[in-house]
Write a structure and sequence with these properties.
Length: 340
């Protein structure tokens, strides 16, 4: 059965009928007395026009007419823009007319050429491409046989085969024939792991493969049990490989996508892995050691030397693996309460 996680002094200056922004003095009159107001300075070619008005109502037509004339005339000279201490924006084509204290901040502009009144549009800055935070997954094609899904695997960069995909199995399994093809040796120092079948408790050899690759996803130093499966399959792809990934199964399309569980290292992802990964790893080794020590006590009482030797080798193996996991966790800064 397959189970998986599916997972303003600064403002834009524009000349136009609706976009003219004016800065006016607080003493501007409304018709009660002579109050002069400098609206803006427009300099075209070698002439400067200074517009003055006693009020907004009296010279509105003259002001608009001047703007229309300015827009109608072609311009090709260099223009200089500067802002005085009151925030008033000025334009001129004669840099010598700019007070010296403002010249360091002068902005030089090329006046547009071409058809009078033609609007020059600036190209907007390109929008930066947003990178997805979701890591790229490795897509793998699956083959269905009856109720089981199979995936092609590549073992130790030398043997290819099809394994059952089982996200609920603690270990990856290979059969005895596959172990021979890989040249794996089983001797008295090989750790044996107790597993429960439907009728009895049996011990199965535990070996470490240099690598397993599924599609483009590869994991090195993978723990594998050697055990013949009832279905005569060459092997079973379990969590000693799959727990390095977030697995998404698409039964409709017959595909499996593997997203690496390792991301960028951060305070909440020490070593690049989240809390679930670290707690799962420690729980796995501690649980196996607990069960092995119970069996050790049982075989001690029974005087079963063969089984006792196998259990002792298995205990030493898991203690070494747990010690290495502790070293990696300490180096990565994994919190102590994640290691229980």
């Amino acid at each position: 059965m397959i189970s998986g996680a599916i997972i303003s002094h600064a403002f834009p200056f524009r000349i136009g009928f609706r976009n003219v922004e004016a800065i006016h003095d607080s003493g501007c009159g409304t018709g009660t007395g002579p109050s002069w107001k400098k609206l803006t300075t427009l300099l075209l070619r070698n002439k400067m026009y200074l517009i003055k008005a006693r009020g907004f109502g009296m010279n509105k037509a003259f002001f608009l007419l001047t703007i229309l004339i300015a827009l109608a005339l072609p311009a090709s000279a260099e223009m200089y823009k500067w802002v005085d201490e009151k925030g008033t924006v000025h334009f001129t084509d004669d840099i010598s007319s700019i007070p010296e204290k403002y010249r360091e901040e002068v902005e030089e502009r090329k006046t547009p050429t071409g058809t009078p009144g033609q609007e020059i549009m600036e190209k907007p800055a390109p929008t930066p491409v947003q990178k997805s935070s979701e890591p790229q997954g490795f897509e793998v094609n699956l083959v269905r046989r009856h109720e089981l899904w199979f995936s092609e695997v590549f073992l130790n960069n030398r043997v290819r085969s099809y394994f059952i995909v089982d996200t609920g199995a603690s270990f990856t399994l290979i059969n005895m024939q596959m172990a021979k093809e890989l040249g794996l040796n089983i001797n008295e120092t090989t750790p044996f792991i107790p597993i429960y079948t439907a009728s009895q408790l049996i011990f199965t050899p535990l070996v470490t493969l240099k690598s397993i690759r599924v599609g483009e996803a590869e994991v090195e130093n993978v723990d594998v049990l050697i055990h013949n499966l009832p279905s005569n399959a060459a092997g079973l792809l379990g969590n000693s490989f799959l727990n390095k990934f977030r697995v998404v199964l698409d039964s409709a399309q017959g595909k499996m996508t593997l997203f690496s569980a390792k991301g960028i290292a951060s305070p909440d992802r020490p070593g690049g892995y989240g809390r679930d990964y670290w707690t799962g790893q420690f729980r796995f080794y501690n649980r196996n050691l607990t069960e092995l020590k119970k069996l050790k006590a049982k075989y001690d009482n029974q005087g079963a030397s063969t089984e006792l030797n196998r259990v002792n080798y298995a205990i030493r193996y898991f203690e070494n693996q747990l010690s290495e996991l502790e070293r990696r966790a300490s180096f990565a800064g994994v919190p102590r309460n994640w290691r229980d």
